[in-house]
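Figure 3 (text version): structure tokens given as input.
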């Protein structure tokens, strides 16, 4: 079964952000394990958890970027908005019992981790810690 395992490449170098990202991995993995049982209440709760997580986590990162005058704030914020919209769409589908394209959903989660966290989030912390990207 597909799982996301934490390793050093995901570490941004910021303890709070890394802790939140590890929490995201836990939600992802529970979500991936539960998705076989489409109708389970846990599946719905986990997708809602993912949405709540997005709100909190993106707020933390956006506040960090603002206080550091991060030059790519708007671009990063708009990626957060896109991820949020995609998770919201997923929650609605789970809630309504609509069919979900598993391949597309997994690809979305994978690109969030591999593209957004590994590249974009790490750039933010690099900027905050070293003043460059
Ligand atoms: Fe993040
Ligand atoms: Fe981010």
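Below: residues designed for each position.
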């Amino acid at each position: 079964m597909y799982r996301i395992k934490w390793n050093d490449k995901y570490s941004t170098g910021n303890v709070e952000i890394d802790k939140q990202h590890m929490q995201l991995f836990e939600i992802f993995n529970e979500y991936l394990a539960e998705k076989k049982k489409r109708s389970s209440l846990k599946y719905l709760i986990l997708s809602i958890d993912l949405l709540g997580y997005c709100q909190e986590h993106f707020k933390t990162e956006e506040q960090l970027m603002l206080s550091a005058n991060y030059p790519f704030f708007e671009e990063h914020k708009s990626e957060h908005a896109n991820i949020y919209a995609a998770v919201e769409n997923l929650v609605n589908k789970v809630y309504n019992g609509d069919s979900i394209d598993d391949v597309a959903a997994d690809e979305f989660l994978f690109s969030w981790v591999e593209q957004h966290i590994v590249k974009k989030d790490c750039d933010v912390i690099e900027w905050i810690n070293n003043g460059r990207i």
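The chain has a mean pLDDT of 92.
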